[in-house]
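Homework help board

Subject: predicted structure for assignment chain

Our instructor gave us this sequence and asked us to write out the predicted structure in token form, then describe one feature. I got the tokens but I'm not sure how to describe them. Can anyone check?
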Amino acid sequence: MALAVFVLGHIWRYRYDKFGWTTRSSQLYERRLLRIGSPLFHFGVLVVLLGHIGGLVIPKSWTEAAGISEHTYHIGAVVLGTIAGVATLGGLAILIYRRRTVGPVFSATTRNDKAMYVSLTVTIGLGLSATVAANLVGGGYDYRETISPWFRSIFSFRPDLDLMTGAPVLFQLHAVSALLLFAAWPFTRLVHMLTAPLGYLTRPYIVYRSRDSRLGTRPPRRGWERVG
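My token output:
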């Protein structure tokens, strides 16, 4: 149901709310914290997303057939996943701090934004906690034997719930929080993830014309001749 809402919700939003399909950028209000928090969050979450695709979508047998041992995969996934998770959570903390402490940015924050930030923080925090608790503090947990097959079974409309019963509680909570986030995704500013500003590469120049018919007393500078 959550994945269906994710897909159909984006289609509905794009069809009936194109003008609302925006990040509602607040860069004009404050830039110093944004220059730090935004790259940390976006690059971190990109690595996290790629790691989830590799771990959940690609079966374990495929990586082994490619010559990547389970030990090598596990070390790479834990190290990169932990670094990316810390960067994502740190960037998100800076963005939340900026949105709360900078007056104009806080004034432009809606209840929808606040709920989105809470959902993002909970989902990312649970994912990072599950990784640290299971692999760095505990004895390790091979989620590709249980959670990954369960995730793939959803798309065949035959989810194998037994695969999730033995998973650690933090992994189960992370999966639930992620599904709730996906269900809310189409109705938040997160829709900009599916948008690429390719039109900027081909759009024509914007011509600005003065509304005042008088040219003024000073001659125009070269290269800024009046049009029309």
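Reply (TA_rk): Your tokens look well-formed. For the description, you could write something like this. The chain has a mean pLDDT of 87. That's the kind of observation they're looking for.
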